[in-house]
Amino acid sequence: MSELPTADEPDTPCVAICSTLFDEVCRGCGRTVMEVANWVFMTPDEKRAVWTRIRAEGYPRRDIQGLTDRPERR
To answer: What InterPro entries does its record include (predicted)?
Structure first.
């Protein structure tokens, strides 16, 4: 799996299912609140690090049902 989105993927992992419930992590894309807020200001290397982490954690979730199958955070 690639670390950065391919040409047919969006620049952002946002899936327009924004929910943080009781912690600072979005249930849709897996980013922290600060990562979401600062995404447009991040360098390509910073974005690559976020993409690598969220994909390893099973994000982004592109369907509603996938939200219930979210892996536990370490």
So the answer is: DUF1289 (IPR010710)
Amino acid at 65: Q
Q: Can you give the pTM of this predicted structure? A: 0.69
Residue 39: domain span:
14-63
Among the ranges given (4-8, 44-48, 55-59, 69-73), the one the predictor scored with the smallest mean pLDDT: 69-73
Q: 13 Cβ partners below 8 Å, 6+ apart?
A: 29, 30, 31, 50, 51, 54, 59, 60
- As a whole number, mean pLDDT of residues 11-19 equals 83
Number of domains present in the structure of the chain: 1
